[in-house]
Design brief:
eight-stranded antiparallel β-sheet; two-stranded antiparallel ribbon; 289 residues; alpha+beta; Protein Transport Mog1p, Chain A
Length: 289
């Protein structure tokens, strides 16, 4: 058993002695306070930075941007090479063959012939119904081929797109119609057309026009006509015209422009022609219309 704790042990030696033989008073000593419990320290977990996987969409976007950049680069190179040829020194670095190609002038497009599809026809002799050598004309592909206007075939005719009647007829020696030279040009009733001198393909000719109700050599009526009498040789001439038959609604102006194109396709034999003055009226042919 341990010795009892004395006051001297707690407070040091007392100045007041304890009488001998008396018991030493017991002093209660409070027990030492228990130490405070230790607070556990939480350890901070180590954070590992793990990047999430990239979504597929971002990968495709990256590929798309890469392709776009490559395309822009190629386009830039092409534009650079194209533009440099228009500036001084733009051909530096090219071979002589490349420079020749780069400096070659652009080819001029060949103009398209608007009459390339037109068809060629020959004028028929009104007596024999055979083609007259050296005389021809052309018509658009969508215009029907001319046919004999009468059983005797004194003229050939067809319709133009605007509704007017186109006719062509030989006149003079060996033909059913008389040569126009030596007479004024009129309808069968004697109404004279307005006529002016001109030339067609180097041949002397008469341009005749009329806007009146007249009749043709075949006895058929018309309301408007325009045509040419052309001297082909000393004994042969050619009449070419178009007119509006009575009772027919036609676009005369439209067909008149086409008619001039047709006249421009006439081909004649190379024979000199002696012009003859006109006097008394001679009825204009009109293909029996």
């Amino acid at each position: 058993m341990p010795d009892p704790i004395t006051p001297d042990d707690l407070y040091g030696p007392s100045s007041t002695p304890v009488p001998e033989g008396q018991p030493v008073p017991q002093v209660d000593v409070a027990p030492a306070p228990a130490p405070a419990p230790a607070i556990p320290v939480e350890e901070t977990p180590e954070i590992i930075n793990v990047s999430p996987p990239k979504p597929k969409g971002s990968v495709l976007s990256s590929i798309g941007l890469l392709i776009l950049f490559i395309g822009l680069f190629v386009l830039g190179v092409w534009l650079s090479s194209y533009i440099r040829q228009y500036f001084p020194g733009g051909l530096v670095g090219l071979t002589p063959q490349q420079q020749q190609v780069a400096t070659a002038p652009a080819a001029t497009p060949t103009p398209t012939d608007p009459m390339a599809s037109w068809k060629t026809y020959q004028v028929l002799n009104s007596t024999t119904k055979l083609a007259i050598t050296g005389i021809s004309f052309r018509l658009p592909a969508d215009v029907l081929a001319p046919t004999c206007d009468t059983t005797t075939c004194m003229s050939q005719g067809t319709y133009l797109p605007g509704g007017t009647r186109f006719t062509i007829a030989p006149r003079g020696s060996g033909q059913l119609l008389a040569d126009f030279r030596g007479s004024a040009i009129s309808d069968v009733g004697g109404v004279v057309f307005t006529a002016t001198d001109t030339t067609i393909a180097g041949h002397t000719a008469k341009l005749f026009t009329g806007s009146f109700n007249g009749k043709t050599a075949g006895g058929y009526g018309f309301s408007q006509m325009r045509g040419y009498m052309i001297a082909v040789s000393p004994s042969l001439s050619l009449e070419i015209n178009h007119f509006v038959p009575n009772g027919v609604t036609a676009d005369f102006a439209k067909d008149d422009a086409l008619f001039d194109q047709i006249v421009g396709t006439l081909v004649f034999p190379t024979t000199s022609v002696i012009p003859v003055a006109t006097s008394t009226p001679v009825p204009a042919t009109t293909s029996g219309y």
